Amino acid sequence: MLLDPYNQTDHPECKSRPDSGLSAITELDPGYITGPLSSVWKEWVKWCIEFGIEANGIIAAPYDWRLSPSMLEERDLYFYKLKQTFETALKLRGGPSIVFAHSLGNNVFRYFLEWLKLEIAPKQYIQWLDDHIYAFFAVGAPLLGSTETVKGMLSGNTFGLPVSEGTARLMFNSFGSSLWMMPFSKYCRADAMYLKHFSGGIRKGPNTYQCEQKEFQSNYSGFSTNIINIEIPSTRGIDAYPSVSEFSQTNYSSMEYGLPTQLSFSAREISDGAFFKAIEDYDSDSKRTLHQLKKSYHDDPVLNPLTPWDRPPIKNVFCIYGVDSRTEVGYYFAPSGKPYPDNWIITDVIYEIEGSLVSRSGNQVEGNPGPASGDETVPYHSLSWCKTWLGPRVNITRAPQSEHDGSDVQVELNVEHHDEDVVPNMTRSPRVKYITYYEDSESIPGKRTAVWELDKANHRNIVRSPALMRELWLQIWHDIHADSPSKFVSKAKRGPLRDDDCYWDYGKARCAWPEYCEYRCSSVTP
What we know:
- Strands 1-2-9-16-15-13-14 form a seven-stranded mixed β-sheet. Strands 8-7-10-11-12 form a five-stranded mixed β-sheet.
- By secondary structure, the protein is α+β, with helices and mostly antiparallel strands.
- It contains 15 helices and 18 strands.
- The chain has two domains: about 1-5 and about 15-25 and about 60-245 and about 255-375 and about 460-495, no CATH class; about 500-525, no CATH class.
- It comes from Gossypium tomentosum.
- This is Phospholipid--sterol O-acyltransferase.
- GO terms for molecular function: O-acyltransferase activity.
């Protein structure tokens, strides 16, 4: 699977390409290597077919997740083919498609929307989207990146596979996509580098990267803490770190005398390359990283992907993610004394847990924690960025994930929203997992936006969540009926939808939900 770290070509002895069709997304080949990672969209596809969607109406769009966005198009013509896929689906099905994306797939879809702007005349762009895409369901989207990427780049992340961390790091860092999920500041944006002239040709424009004053007035680039804290042995004094502008006198003295120095870096300082420049003399991979960062991200002709998302210009957008799982948000690194790729070790980890920050040893950590924690992989601040896409007034509903009779449903109507996080004033039963829905009350004209937060739904398994599958189906069924009085499906009550949702209530010695379910005993005669 290794790629050349500079030009992203295949390993000389092995050429790998993504599979195609539904088989590419339902399940990996189960075995010793893949283990519990085998099942991907399998349950989701089964739900769709069970509720009447024809198999040929489900179109998979797998991609080589090792490649940077520009290389996906350069090598595989991925975005050109994806555009053709939408156009073919419209001709065959007679209507627009519904897009589901998970994790990095959301970044891929975002890049496609920007790439499309250079392929379609500006006056036709929105019309093309309206004709071909009815709704976008963004599941587990790392909208401001993921801190776990940093761990993979510096010490290796095995994901439970039987390989060493050093081997995992070596492989991960050979991929151009390794930088695609890096955390970045919500306050810094970049202008497009290239502007296409429809009279012919492409001209190069100013490639500017600018940060709001808030980036320098607040800490942590909109995250809950500094993402990297690293101990560096220095014997050359302050000039060894030309990219790091400010140090305390204590740090300066320790560096001057060659003692280890701990430096801290925010999301912006990681994504703009300052961190990698600071460790360039102590990590042989930094040169490769800086090359890829500039070539494939900062100078990307379509989009600098390491900048905040604006709401996609699609009529219906649903942003869905898990909350309140323990999620890594910061790391402490130190030299291991070993050569690359094992030259750094993690000495401590900072977690966000349900609105607080704690270290691996359990001590409280200062910072700016959010009202909730993330989904085990992506921090809350990154997942919840899509709340900025909501309209100026929001209806909030909190309901149990399991089937319910409506007695534990809480509602707040017309909550004012000012392009930041919105947090409900609602209670929780400690033994109940909830879904909290944030839905436009006053929408952006012509648009509809919703955010769903699922308690304890982790990043990798959320696409297999029965509660999520149920809500997706009910919302789609609601939208099919144009005479529905409300924009969103009611949350007042949830009964079982499938036979698998029925169960025996031992306390009452009967079927639970008798208005939906019945018990049938059949005898078998040999």
